[in-house]
């Protein structure tokens, strides 16, 4: 099928949020997936648009019934992607974009086998450290994030594509090219059969 989940991961400071924002703006056939959380809404956030704001009991029930594509507990709150969120986007004939960590990516690929995974990497660990330092002032936090980044980078081999985010517009263009190429794969084009090819 032409509509398939697009998984995008990167270490903190890798640029995934910026790249995804540009992809969504430039390609109307992509759609962000609404995730669920048990944390309280922040100012301006709306249920069903920014997040699904669930109670802990509802979230735990969804996990127990196998309704989550992936989930994690961060500090005291749950975060996760309901399978229905992904399927709703596909029903609209759009590609759902999932911005998730390496562990979540592995879980989602087991459920949505036609998903395409893209890892966004920094040009170097030194550059990544500079980027993290530019937006954080706690040296302990930088150390923790760098250690996490090394662990995440070790998982690149499990992804379909690797894009180096050295020059942002180039990285966005490469991501777009990957998605376009995947859309044109013959195995995804169900409507090709019976057209004389």
Q: Can you tell me about this structure?
A:
With 197 residues, the protein is α/β, with parallel strands linked by helices. It has one domain (6-192): P-loop containing nucleotide triphosphate hydrolases (Rossmann fold), CATH 3.40.50. Helices cover 41% and strands 20% of the residues. The protein has seven helices and nine strands, in the order E-H-E-E-E-H-E-E-H-E-H-E-H-H-E-H. It has helices at residues 16-26, 56-64, 83-91, 102-111, 125-135, 139-153, 168-183, and strands spanning 6-9, 30-32, 36-37, 52-53, 68-74, 77-82, 95-99, 116-121, 161-164. The strands form two sheets. It has a five-stranded parallel β-sheet with strand order 2-7-1-8-9, sandwiched between helices. A four-stranded mixed β-sheet has the order 4-3-6-5. The protein is globular. The mean pLDDT is 90.
- Gross CATH architecture: 3-Layer(aba) Sandwich
Q: What's the SSE pattern?
A: EHEEEHEEHEHEHHEH
Query: Spans of 5+ residues with little confidence (pLDDT < 50)?
Result: none
How far apart are the termini? 17 Å
Compute the CA-based radius of gyration. 18 Å
**CATH topology (level 3) name:** Rossmann fold
Q: Which whole number gives the mean pLDDT?
A: 90
Shape: globular
Strand content: 15-25%
Helix fraction, binned, reads 40-55%
Strand order of the largest sheet: 2-7-1-8-9
Number of strands: 9
Largest sheet: 5 strands, parallel
Number of spatially distinct domains:
1
CATH class membership: Alpha Beta
Structural class of the secondary structure composition?
Answer: alpha/beta
How many helices?
Answer: 7
CATH superfamily: P-loop containing nucleotide triphosphate hydrolases
